[in-house]
Prior knowledge:
Blueprint: H1 10-21, H2 42-55, H3 64-73
Amino acid sequence: MHTVRLTIHDTIYEKLMGLLEILPKDKIEIIEEKDEFPAISFEEAKLKIERAMNNIPKNEGLNLSTAIEKVIRS
């Protein structure tokens, strides 16, 4: 047996799952996992941090819980 871990873009997820589901059930086991937090690129993270840091001296920041909720939902 082999184990493969894939990260699949939402646009092709259903197609890949359909393909896997036609394989013999006794030959493949599908264990689905979903990332708890959305992944963002380094550049996106850098921009968010720069914006946040620029707003600190202007007293335009958010409280911690609000900031965390915005990051998780974006």
